[in-house]
Amino acid sequence: MTPPRPQRPQNPDRDFTLAHYREILEGITASHPTLSFAEAAPLGPALLDKERFVLMRHDVEFSLKSALTLAEADHQAGVRSSFFLQYGSDYNIFEPESAEIIDRILALGHDIGLHYDVTLLERSGADPVEMARRMIDLMESYWSTKIHAASPHLPMRSGKRLEIPGVVDVYDPLYFTEIKYLSDSTQMWREGVVTRLLDRYKQIQLLTHEYHWSEEGHGFDVLLLREANRKFRSLYRRAEQNIVRFREGLRLREVRDREFRERFGGARVRTR
Ligand SMILES: [Zn+2]
After folding, report:
1. Centre of ligand 1 from the C-alpha of residue 272, in Å
2. Which of 20, 66, 73, 121 allows an S-S link to 210, with CB 3.0 to 4.6 Å?
3. Whether residue 260 sits in one domain with residue 205
4. Same domain for 71 and 141?
5. Nearest-CA neighbor of 105 among 80, 88, 87, 86?
6. What separation in Å is there between the alpha carbon of 153 and the centre of ligand 1?
7. d(CA 185, ligand 1 centre) in Å
8. What confidence tens digit (pLDDT) does each residue in 136-173 have?
């Protein structure tokens, strides 16, 4: 059970309601033009010639559904942003429902990037850069899109980032030290919420995470458990459907075997 809806906190630094997320977008767009990595990467160092901007990045950690919610909010605010997606996380980008969400994110004018896990890539023993490049190629061809950027997952843990040919890395000094980097990591703005800092910083990379923001403004603990519950229910439904399908398959096995042989011309199944 999800706990009751909390009050919106007085302190905006602690307010993770979607209403506040929309206000943040309003605040940003009133003072700074925004850019996605698809727009910023081709500029190279000329990005720094732009007097003011906020570079909009989302690392998607747990929920593509919540990522779509942010994508819609960004779009409504006239903002293009970049959604960095993982292979081998709590979601699977190649599930039909997920693939469709990614279609919709792209259709809103946003772009996708690779959110890579160095530890996972190194585990294979193969060249992690080559492996990441192949992941990018697959995403590019599956969604008929161009990927401009990559972001490392848990960079503090691995202490590494990869130089992947053809894409920029979000922690390249150009995007990380030359400009101001702000993030909502673990629902904790280090210097206060971005809207407090718009007067102070002209050039910003802003990282926000899909699972931090909810209608009710819950803490990440409640939100993570709620997301796990949603996934459980979805897997349970799928298991029920598979049980029905398998039982039906067994019931109709002889007919199906015959149809299969007729269609594919396979060897006759010997029956005793
Ligand atoms: Zn991550």
Report:
1. 56
2. 66
3. no
4. yes
5. 80
6. 4
7. 10
8. 999 999 999 999 999 999 887 777 889 999 999 999 99
